[in-house]
Design a protein that fits this description.
262 residues, alpha+beta, Umud Fragment, subunit A, five-stranded antiparallel beta sheet, 5 helices, 16 strands, globular, disordered C terminus
Length: 262
């Protein structure tokens, strides 16, 4: 009982508060703000969310904002404790491989051993488990056979209605070719191919390659606050999880004109 009292008093001190807050940030959850529209309509600009940092193991702790690593990378994989790996369809928060101080949020569309390509903006996926896996798990989706391999056409749109293309983006020579077509890519083992749900306005693995496990941070937990560009609070999004936000209630067919990719 005396020990509990000491812990209680310590937790109420400045030192205890700082240690507890940093412990939560290092190992449990960290706040992030969605800065761009690359995940529209699943996640919107102005969504403020907590990221669950223990979903895929415990990342090597760093001081927020300063991005200073406070412990060595003992396992040489960016994680203090190794855990589960991102699965196909997961929304993942990760460090941008070419500048790890920047965090990105995208959807994992392929994992190690998968083969994928793009044709006329459509994503085609051949899972590493092979044809029988496709037949068993994608019975209601369109497939095509190429060189003896079954590819699933747009495998995520049925379950994740926030995924969409912008009809105003056409192949007129002014847009990056990767938005429309991409040669087949086999994802290296232990790496992940990430794409934004706002397919024609996302800077993702189509342009800079796959993401190693060492850069994986976690997955969005829930939105704790949200406001639009006019600073109007979107109360209907507060305390909603990504899966709840992907319901038809939150998905709109309206796609505003946008420029560039992000």
């Amino acid at each position: 009982m005396e020990k509990l009292k000491k812990i209680y008093h310590w937790s109420g001190s400045w030192t205890g508060t700082v240690v507890i807050v940093l412990g939560i940030i290092f190992f449990i959850a960290q706040a992030f703000v969605i800065p761009s529209g690359s995940m529209k309509n699943s996640l919107l600009i102005g969504d403020m969310l907590f990221v669950k940092k223990f979903t895929y193991g415990i990342p090597t702790p760093t001081v927020p904002w300063l991005e200073l690593q406070i412990l060595p990378d003992f396992n040489d994989n960016g994680h203090l404790i190794e855990g589960d790996k991102p699965q196909r369809g997961d929304i993942v928060v990760f460090r941008y491989p070419h500048n790890p101080k920047i965090h990105y949020v995208k959807r994992c569309v392929a994992t190690g051993g998968d083969i994928l390509f793009l044709q006329n903006k459509k994503l085609y996926l051949h899972p590493s488990e092979g044809n029988e896996f496709v037949k068993e798990n994608y019975k209601e989706q369109k497939t095509v056979e190429i060189n003896g391999m079954l590819f699933v056409e747009d495998p995520y749109r049925k379950d994740h209605p926030g995924i969409h293309n912008d009809p105003s983006i056409t192949k007129n020579g002014m847009q990056p070719s990767q938005l429309f077509n991409m040669m087949p890519v086999k994802v290296p083992q232990g790496e992940f191919f990430m794409m934004g749900d706002n397919r024609d306005h996302s800077n993702d693995s189509r342009f800079w390659g796959t993401v190693q496990y060492r850069y994986i941070v976690g997955t969005p937990w829930f939105v704790y606050f949200s406001w639009d560009e006019d600073k109007n609070i979107r109360w209907d999004r507060v305390f909603q999880t990504p899966s709840q936000l992907e319901s038809s209630k939150y998905i709109t067919n309206e796609i505003k004109h946008q420029e560039g990719i992000y």
